[in-house]
């Protein structure tokens, strides 16, 4: 494995285990078995290293989203959305310790914001992708014509995101699957044809 | 103003301006015009200080929630929910730099979790309060009998929470009011009698 990859792996572990606030480039370099000088040859600052971790090491909703899009027009829409919502709760729960950590450091937040802006990427892309899926189902008549795909996507993914946040902070029953099903059932009369 | 209050104010400012990762008790003590030793007489650790900031200085949804509950059975339910959702987006946006920062430090997260558990409090209380409001409207026949107040509350507040998160990270149109109205319109056929 090349040095850059080793540094990224070590940084990801340190950010998860120690937190964004406590992980230092010194420790990351040590864990990657390289010098701090070499680390800074690959990443110009701690912020740029973190940015690379966010862009290259953090699991995203793309896989669950691809599964969803592969099922346009197929099977039960309610079941497809429930499976997607459950995957979203789990992924957001996994990602939040890192994503939340960005807020601990305004400089890191600035770097991330500039990076998302320059590449047209960002966490909101998941909501746009879900809205595209709902629009495709709407064209097939499986989503109600009166439904607003953007608002429906924001409601469903937003609830999954906040649930994941709560799971880190308070003791909740271990029923994310029922939670996901309840969300989709609640939305269904306004969404599903 | 007594020392404890001065320290809490200085810590809140430092956490907002420098971020949870960069704010130090040394700087906080200096800004509060006291010694670090005195700071530690009031708060046994940096984590306990941050915990007190979260519990005593962070605006919560209680006010918007109280307005909502004062309007049970009154006016347009759709308008009442839209005003609440807009207030939630704004409050969550204001609070996220601090709330997100907790995730940068696993020790701080542990302290917060224990503190929420011992007092039965936490950010999920806002969703429970919204669900109580919807249940009260359901008893008056203004919310559909088939609607699930818990799921509806999770959908609406979750979307507001995630929107606030996105607003910190990516450039979005300045239309949180339309966003809030669209959420409620989307939910309405499944929620409002």
Automatic annotation (TrEMBL), chains A, B:
Protein name: AcrR family transcriptional regulator
PROSITE patterns the UniProt entry points to: HTH_TETR_2
HTH tetR-type domain mapped to chain residues: 1-61
InterPro entries cross-referenced by the UniProt entry: Homeodomain-like_sf, HTH-type_TetR-like_transc_reg, HTH_TetR, Tet_transcr_reg_TetR-rel_C_sf, TetR_C_Proteobacteria
DNA-binding region residue numbers: 24-43
PANTHER family according to UniProt: HTH-TYPE TRANSCRIPTIONAL REGULATOR RUTR, MYCOFACTOCIN BIOSYNTHESIS TRANSCRIPTIONAL REGULATOR MFTR-RELATED
Gene Ontology molecular function, alphabetical: DNA-binding transcription factor activity; transcription cis-regulatory region binding
Keyword annotations from UniProtKB, A to Z: DNA-binding, Transcription, Transcription regulation
Domain of life: Bacteria
């Amino acid at each position: 494995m090349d040095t850059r990859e080793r540094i990224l792996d070590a940084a990801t572990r340190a950010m998860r285990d120690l937190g964004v606030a406590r992980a230092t480039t010194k420790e990351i370099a040590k864990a990657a078995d390289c010098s701090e000088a070499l680390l800074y040859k690959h990443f110009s600052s701690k912020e740029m290293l973190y940015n690379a971790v966010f862009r290259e090491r953090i699991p995203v909703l793309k896989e669950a989203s691809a599964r969803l899009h592969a099922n346009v027009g197929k099977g039960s829409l309610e079941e497809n959305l429930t499976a997607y919502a459950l995957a979203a709760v789990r992924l957001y729960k996994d990602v939040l310790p890192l994503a939340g950590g960005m807020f601990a450091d305004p400089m890191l937040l600035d770097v991330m914001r500039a990076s998302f802006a320059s590449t047209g990427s960002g966490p909101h892309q998941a909501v746009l992708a879900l809205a595209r899926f709902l629009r495709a189902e709407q064209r097939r008549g499986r989503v109600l014509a009166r439904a607003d795909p953007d608002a429906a996507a924001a409601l469903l993914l937003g609830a999954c995101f906040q649930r994941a946040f709560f799971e880190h902070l308070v003791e909740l029953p271990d029923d994310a699957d029922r939670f996901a099903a309840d969300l989709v059932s609640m939305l269904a009369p306004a969404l599903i044809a």
